[in-house]
Amino acid sequence: MKITRKDFLRLSGLSVLAAGAVRTFEAAKAAGQSAIRPLRGSGGAPRKQLAMAIDLRKCRQRPGCDLCMKACRDAHNVPVIADPRHEVKWIWNAPFAEVFPLEQSAYTERNYTGSPLPVLCNHCDEPACVRVCPTGATWKRSEDGIVMMDWHRCIGCKYCMVACPYEARSFNFVDPRPYIEHINSDFPTRSMGVVEKCNFCAERLAAGKQPACVEACPANAIAFGDSSDPNSPVCLALSASFSLRRKPELGTGPNVHSIV
Amino acid sequence: MRDRVWIYSGLAVFVAVLTCPFWYALARAHAASRPPQLVLPANQTQCVAPVSFMRASHMQMLLDWREDVVRRDDHRFVAYDGKIYQKSLTRTCLGCHSKQQFCDRCHAYTGVSGPYCWDCHNDPRHLAAGVTPEAQSMRAGGFDRTQSMLSHFPKLTTSSPTSRQPEQTAAGRTP
Amino acid sequence: MFEKALAGGRRYWLWVGFLLAVSFLGLFDWVREQQIGLGVTALTRDVPWGLYIGQFVFFVGLGASALVVVLPYYLHNWKAFAKITLLGEILGMVSVFMAMLFIFVSMGRPMRLINVLWYPHPNSLIFWDINVLSGYVLLNAIVTTTILWSERQGIAPPRWTRFLVMLSLPWAVSIHTVTAFILCGLVARPYWLTPLMAPRFLASAFTSGAALLALLALLMRRLGVFDVGEEAIQKLRTIATYCLLTHVFFDLNEIFTVFYSRIPEHVAHIDYLFAGLDGNDLYAPWMQLSALFALAALAIFLIPALRNRSSLLPWACAFAFFSMLIEKGLGLMVGGFVPTAFGVTAAYAPNLSEWTVVAGIWAFGALLITVLYKIALAVRAEAES
């Protein structure tokens, strides 16, 4: 049998395609298996889910306080970019009317305008960002429910920013390094063109420490812990007071609570 | 087949042009056939793996560490001799090695400018010295071939891998 | 076959040179964007997808619209489309290729694109989109080259090409459906959160595709390059008419649901687009123009006195095409993001850098169309003589 040039090109093209398809199929199978996160752990106990409760009553005692945000910036090399179009935010202050638009009333406007209201990634039970990420650069960690990011893998498609109802994700529109006040050599900076967000201080938790914002708060306004453990600080704080979550009606299951 | 001579000479020129980077690199390496002057950590005689492995596969090991730390929350590395290290480029690798005088020199010498580790990861010594991470460029220094890094590598010892040591040049440390 | 693209007159080479120049301009501007960062575009934290992704959606639609000629010709044996079907397939293939380029330029880290296939996540619609888009380009490339090759040999195309053509019909629907699913499954964006998104996309896609093909056919006849036949053009007009009617009907359905229910966050987006919100009415004139264009095209398509004047046909096609281009290529994205989830009206207007890259991709697409049509028509002319 004689193989013409055309046949050869066709055959090699097809082989490359076939090899690629097999690789993709196998990886997809593996991804499908790892994407399933049972609600309950192996022993039937509820899954661990880290959560946070921010006591805004304590925040209101200290108008203009931004110590938690500063601690976060220093811990994670978060750049301070003046241009609001390109800002990078992990934990930041937002007006009450924007954070809880449906709760806005004349009373809240009168009493809460101008007081600090820290917001951050909600580390949702059903994170929309994780569902849409095409590469697995962001995923929900099965051990503790943190919505993690892998900046090595992010392709910068920004789909997660489009999908997140909380605007908790920031794209690096410019090289962030010149905008970092003090570079903490223990934590990487980010490169241009990737998306980033709060990681619940996974690196500090691994070292047995509390998140930087929790530790930095002089009023102990932020309670942090496992929401499946009734004796965790976050559960104790939440059982003592009524709290709000952002847009719970969307079904994302946010895990940051604000005690108003 | 009157055109045969043209076809073959054309092909030869094509192949020559296509491979000229290799010839150029080869010629340059021959002209300056001195391997880079690598500065090895003082008071440290052993890396997390044997030198032959590190030289051939450090990039794969870094990629594995990266996946383990970022995606599996697995920070413990058990070395071939049973010692425990933290999987960390900044703390473990740079805890001993100097980026400028170790990583950069060899990468410059071999012409591998690729890895973008430093777009994000920091060199603590560099930051301490007040130099921005961007402002570095390294060149391979002249050095005697017999003092290449191969001759300095390891006998097992048990000093702390993460302590940062002042550097000394490799010269005079030949076992 | 490619040598056919190298034989052309002065007019041809001037046109090719112009398109090449604009393509390179776009390429350089994209390289600049990648070096300095996407911060040089007008994209923001609140509007992370803009002109690029809007154009992507529009061109996927144009790609899917090859179906309007392929389906009648292969499934219903409409002989009127004998000459134009191949051109439609080429247009579809090039459009989808352009759509992929638009995704590429909007990425922050395009060199890592392979991660989508290397670490595939079928949860993500982008994974599916990249697969169906490249599959569609491949399918059409195989079909068109095989058909041309057979025509050149003077033999009937192999029978498997018919199978591939049949496969390409549902595939064309799938590419635009998946593209709609990228947007309409997001709880964060009420403007897109409608099951009518995919049908609406298909209706507007077939409108713009039929209109553009008719325009290209009229242009080629005017230039004396090629005549697809009057009947084909009239049939394209009919298709454009009904698709545009369907599209307008779908749009009105959306408007009814939104304004009768008056859910604030659904109303806000349409208000912003067509009337302006908080004094920001940048897009209002454009969206009104788009609506006006659609109505004007419908008037010419439907009113007998206007329908019978052939000089108005190119106008109607251009109106229909640009109406869809404005609505889908820009309004769709801006409307999805503004007002933001926080209720703030952020301003986004594509800047010169983005327009330059878009012009570059358009020029590259036009170049591919020019060259491929040239080859196809030359091979056909040779086979016939």
Question: Can you walk through the features of this model?
Answer:
- The complex is a heterotrimer of chains A (260), B (175) and C (385).
- Chain A is 33% helix and 13% strand.
- Chain A is of the alpha+beta class.
- The longest helix of chain A has 31 residues, at 5-35.
- The termini of chain A are far apart.
- Chain B has two domains: 1-31; 35-152, no CATH class.
- Chain B has a two-stranded antiparallel ribbon with strand order 1-2.
- The longest helix of chain B has 28 residues, at 4-31.
- Chain B starts with a helix and ends in a 47-residue tail after the last helix.
- Helix content of chain C is 73%, strand content 0%.
- Chain C has helices spanning 10-36, 51-64, 67-76, 85-106, 115-118, 125-153, 159-184, 197-222, 230-261, 264-274, 284-302, 304-307, 313-337, 352-384.
- Classes of the chains: A alpha+beta (260), B mainly alpha (175), C mainly alpha (385).
- The interface between A and C is large, with 54 and 45 residues.
SSE inventory with pairings:
The complex is a heterotrimer of chains A (260), B (175) and C (385).
Chain A: H1 5-35, E1 50-55, H2 56-60, H3 67-76, E2 91-93, H4 96-99, H5 106-112, E3 118-120, H6 128-132, E4 138-140, E5 147-149, H7 159-163, E6 170-171, E7 195-196, H8 202-206, H9 212-216, E8 222-226, H10 233-240, E9 243-244, E10 256-259
Parallel strand pairs in A: 1-10
Antiparallel strand pairs in A: 1-8, 2-3, 4-5, 6-7, 9-10
Chain B: H1 4-31, H2 51-72, E1 76-78, E2 84-86, H3 89-96, H4 99-110, H5 117-120, H6 124-128
Chain C: H1 10-36, H2 51-64, H3 67-76, H4 85-106, H5 115-118, H6 125-153, H7 159-184, H8 197-222, H9 230-261, H10 264-274, H11 284-302, H12 304-307, H13 313-337, H14 352-384
Helix pairs in contact in C: 1-14, 2-4, 2-7, 2-8, 2-13, 3-4, 3-7, 4-6, 4-14, 6-7, 6-14, 7-8, 8-9, 8-13, 9-11, 10-13, 11-13
